[in-house]
């Protein structure tokens, strides 16, 4: 049996330093931080480990007093939902700004909740922050903990205040995975695409809850948000672990001039680096655009397994023609996209989501495949017999043997002589054969050439 980690939620109005504190606690810059308010919009979860104390910390959007139908109002609803099931809360206020009416509103709401609250007064460095500490007592939440999240001051006091909440919580036992469960590690699945393609809506549909903030406004998602999930694979009768990663929309580089958007896009690119499989989500109402091809090319260049999903299928016109048109355009636009899985989905209704997940696990399997040296060289000999390498200037290029040196993505090395003269077209012939004949499908395949170091070995 294993223990569930207790969760502590960071709550406060915008720009009081919640994300800076989150990064300080997890020991890494996971959350985007900027001077302007409202940077964080979705919940982000990180693990904290100090001595024998371990817990999860949840960063939330800034609490704003707005109508629920507005974006700030929906962000507040996400923050309120984060407290459900949590074992404690850190209520952060800005000591320099002093106590505000919004701080008082949040304090009243927290006093009505059933979770322990630690009042945190941030930005106390210098004399200007001392008045805020004194004012905070009027919130009725006990003695405040004075910190500077940016400079790491007061963290020992904060951990001391958290200790009885974290260590005093009686965590329920969780059953270990059954022996016949899938032993594979969780699938790292990132969803990327242009703004407003429906990435967050798709993840909410998969989860079966409004976990991520959505709406008609483009660019709602800023941080790359990872969410653990269990997919019920009804075909195989298995429960498969997945880490879903939502990312910010990627616009044309020339259109991105806002500093915060640049940070968001850079964060999305890092999410691709850490993913195993990447789903490029297209908007069926807009079809395939040049920016989509650029994003797909970036994913392939990073060596990730790629799936292309056409979203909003429930409102697509001439669905069959659209599907075939996108398939043809993909194969004409980039040679390395030929054969990439193409799936039609509706994030609104859930249509096609099981097919999408099945394809994701299949391409990860291909991406992780290793072929025995004997089988690989039998294929290699057949490939050269069917299409011998050229002999530029009447001197033959000799390919001796091939070996697989890695997976994820699959990497191969060919040994031989005069390989610097091997045409790119012949390398492409070999890569296409590896994919087609050895079961690698459309995943990226890396092929390098290596000649012997002996300068006289040019027979």
Query: What is the string of SSEs from the N terminus onward?
Result: EEHEEHEHEHEHEEHEEHEHEHEHHEEHE
Strand order, main sheet: write it out: 3-4-2-5-6-7
Cα gyration radius (Å): 27 Å
Overall mean pLDDT score? 81
Taken as a percent bin, the fraction of beta residues is: 15-25%
How widely separated are the two ends? 63 Å
Overall tally of structural domains: 3
Helix content: 25-40%
CATH topology description of the largest domain: Rossmann fold
Protein name: GTPase Der
GO molecular function, one term: GTP binding
Subunit structure: Associates with the 50S ribosomal subunit.
Keywords: GTP-binding, Nucleotide-binding, Repeat, Ribosome biogenesis
Task: Provide a quick synopsis of the model.
The chain has helices spanning 18-26, 71-82, 101-111, 130-136, 155-167, 199-207, 259-274, 290-301, 319-333, 353-367, 373-386, 424-437; strands spanning 2-3, 7-11, 44-50, 53-59, 88-94, 117-122, 145-146, 173-174, 187-193, 225-233, 238-246, 277-283, 305-311, 342-344, 398-406, 411-417, 446-450. With 459 residues, it is an alpha/beta fold. Strands 3-4-2-5-6-7 form a six-stranded mixed β-sheet, sandwiched between helices.
């Amino acid at each position: 049996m294993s223990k569930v980690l207790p969760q502590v939620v960071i709550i406060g109005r915008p720009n009081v330093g919640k994300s800076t504190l989150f990064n300080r606690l997890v020991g890494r810059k996971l959350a985007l931080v900027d001077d302007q308010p409202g940077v964080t919009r979705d919940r982000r979860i990180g693990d904290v480990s100090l001595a024998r104390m371990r817990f999860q910390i949840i960063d939330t959007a800034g609490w704003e007093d707005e109508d629920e139908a507005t974006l700030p109002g929906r962000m507040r609803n996400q923050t309120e939902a984060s407290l459900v099931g949590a074992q404690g809360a850190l209520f952060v206020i800005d000591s320099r700004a002093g106590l505000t009416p919004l701080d008082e509103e949040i304090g009243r709401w927290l006093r009505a909740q059933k979770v322990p609250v630690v009042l945190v007064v941030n930005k106390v460095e210098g004399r200007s922050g001392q008045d805020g500490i004194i004012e905070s007592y009027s919130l009725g939440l006990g003695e405040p903990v004075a910190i500077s999240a940016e400079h790491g001051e007061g963290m020992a006091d904060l951990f001391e205040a958290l200790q009885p909440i974290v260590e005093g919580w009686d965590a329920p036992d969780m059953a270990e995975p059954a022996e016949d469960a899938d032993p594979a590690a969780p699938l790292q699945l990132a969803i990327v695409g242009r703004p407003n393609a429906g990435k967050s809506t798709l993840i909410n549909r998969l989860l079966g809850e409004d976990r991520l903030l959505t709406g008609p406004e483009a660019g709602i998602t800023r941080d790359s948000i990872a969410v653990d999930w269990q997919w019920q694979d009804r075909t195989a009768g298995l429960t498969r672990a997945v880490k879903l990663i939502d990312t910010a929309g990627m616009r044309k580089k020339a259109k991105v001039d806002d500093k915060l958007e640049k940070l968001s896009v850079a964060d999305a690119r890092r999410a691709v680096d850490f993913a195993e499989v990447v789903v490029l989500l297209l908007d069926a109402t807009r079809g395939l655009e040049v920016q989509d091809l650029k994003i797909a090319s970036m994913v392939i260049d990073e060596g990730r397994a790629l799936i292309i999903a056409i979203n909003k299928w429930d409102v697509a016109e001439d669905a069959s023609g659209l599907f075939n048109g996108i398939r043809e355009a993909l194969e004409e636009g980039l040679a390395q996209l030929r054969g990439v899985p193409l799936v039609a989905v509706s994030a609104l209704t859930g249509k096609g989501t099981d097919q999408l997940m099945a394809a994701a696990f299949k391409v990860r399997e291909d991406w992780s495949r290793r072929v025995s040296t004997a089988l690989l060289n039998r294929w290699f000999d057949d490939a050269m017999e069917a299409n011998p390498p050229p002999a530029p200037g009447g001197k033959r290029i000799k390919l001796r043997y091939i070996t697989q040196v890695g997976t994820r993505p699959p990497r191969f090395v060919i040994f031989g002589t005069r390989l610097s003269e091997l045409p790119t077209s012949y390398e492409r012939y070999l890569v296409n054969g590896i994919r087609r004949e050895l079961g690698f499908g459309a995943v990226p395949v890396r092929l390098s050439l290596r000649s012997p170091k002996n300068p006289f070995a040019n027979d």
